[in-house]
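As noted in the main text, all predictions were made from sequence alone. Below is one such record, for Histidine ammonia-lyase.
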Amino acid sequence: MIELTGSSLTLEQMKSILYKGQQVALNAVSLERVQRSREAVDRIVENDKTVYGINTGFGKFSDVKIDEKDTKALQLHLIRSHACGVGEPFSEKVSRAMVVLRLNALMKGFSGIRVEVLERFAFMVNNDIHPVIPQQGSLGASGDLAPLSHLALVLLGEGFVWRDGGHVPAAQVWNEFGMEPIILEAKEGLALINGTQAMTAQGVVNYLEAEKLAYSSEWIAAMTMEALHGITDAFHPAIHEARGYKEQVDVASRMLTWLEDSVLTTVQGEKRVQDAYSIRCIPQVHGASWQVLSYVKEKLEIEMNAATDNPLIFEDGEVVVSGGNFHGQPIAFAMDFLKIGVAELANISERRIERLVNPQLNEGLPPFLSPQPGLQSGAMILQYSAASLVSENKTLAHPASVDSIPSSGNQEDHVSMGTIGSRHAQQIIKNARNVLAIEALCAMTGCMFRGEDKMAPKTRGQLEGLLQVAEPIKEDRIFGPDIEKISDYLNA
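Prediction:
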């Protein structure tokens, strides 16, 4: 059980919640803050004090005063009108992350929401009630309004919930649990949808998948080195310490560990003096991608514990301030940076694939790893697929954050497009994983041609794992399913 306080959630905890089904509990001290914040909202309504989002309209309508009798209707209209997302839904894992992150943000006690709403959120997490949330429609400032509105709909007994890979009406789910939908009070609708939890939830899943892929890229590259009789001198610690980047030093160290006791690798001068950059510069390039991951991790863990509502309530209601914490610029930049870092893992992987299949570069391996060159094409078109994915990544890596389109009558005149960046990052990660799956297939074929008994013990262990899901290239076959199986294996 992971206790949510509003300020201490980590990526490691999110990993347990998302991938191991870990349940959540609500911190008692934080709930006291939530209660005091709610009492402040009730006083504002009772005293008819004009405060944005509590008894006013939203966006350009912020100057329209709302009568006390209409404050509940205001919240309902807000959620329904803003639930206009389109396109394919976010994955169920991202939906679960979104519920957890919105709950954690509200636990900070700055949003004026009732405790019972947060308890219902916790019930959703602990009973796998995951809203169906369309991916498209968020500008990433004034928060992820459209996606979070679809999340909030489920609380109201509207919208849909994931169930066995399909979608069922939320009202049906609450009926099954013998529970009534939530009826929102003043400020609560805005508290539910004003935040960055869509881009951040997708960002969390992106980071966890990218981190896993970055580690996998190293043992796959090590297998490629064995297949190509790569020179291990390039990983000598002194080289990398002389430059000073910790991530580069770490990659070089891990590469030497993967290749320890290999009979297939060489030293400089044994076959050639030095390798091509895609082999020799693995620590420099992969290490730079690890630097990107470190940056992204730092920003995500801040945002996961951030108050991103507007207005925010401080000092038990004595101070209520409208600001812009809903603006997704920090995560927009982080996701655009992540796109570049992961795309580069695929770029250099594709160049290693080319060396594995090109008879002028592959150190005596069969041309295109073909069992019968000419009669059988072998891995020729596998390299085409990798090149296509890498090219697509270059388009997707264009930064979303450099764009902004004004909205709400120019009241909201600068937005982040961070949710677009996070969605594109997810596609880049998928593409990169497929590229590395292709490299793994080619590398395992090359290593088995050389003799798997000559491999390093650690890379041979990875080869044995790969052989559980795919075979090396022994004859031409439909390779698409192999790529998919290895990709799933890399993400397991």
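The chain is about 55% helix and 5% strand. The mean pLDDT is 95. These features were considered when defining construct boundaries for the mutagenesis experiments described in Section 2.9.
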